Fold this sequence. Notes:
By secondary structure, the protein is α/β, with parallel strands linked by helices. Helices cover 27% and strands 27% of the residues.
Amino acid sequence: MPLIMVGGQAKDAGKTTLVCNIIAAFPQFRWMAVKFAGHSHLPQNSRLLVRTRDYSIWQQSSSGSESDTARYSSAGAARALLVQVRDGKMREACLAIHQELSSVEAVLIESAGAMKFFSPDLCLLVVASTQTEFKDSARELLDDVDGVVWREAGRDAPREFLRLAQSKPSYRSMRDGLDPALAAAVASLLEGVH
């Protein structure tokens, strides 16, 4: 089953929008979309699937809220999961998600930190070059990403971004829909599934 991972250089870079746009662009697939979060809260309209000392897994039961997983459901995901992870316990949480992968045709995971525990078929990094924050988990991905999705690209971008743009395929972030080149890359990946 195809696995696409989406990481972001910073909070609010546009990761969830990209995940939703991919789901909406390919509605013929039974997607499972997973968000990893380092903070704990009680998610709305969600059912607790697993709780351990190290992580909890919640399944979105309706699209009636503005949470990221509700947005996944609204976009058409067959399953939308939120994984809340304690610091240093990402490996354990990722192993638990591996158990959930059997009931879907394609998987989208929103997390830079979980990347090293999966073998994605396509790894995308969302960059908003106007933001100065650059998370360590995103910085560690720079050599492994298959493409960069630019929310804003500008001459003031840090050198790391400019180097990345020269060495990896680049796509435009869009509020609704996918850059045609990215849509073609995802379609090629999904080709053998149906």
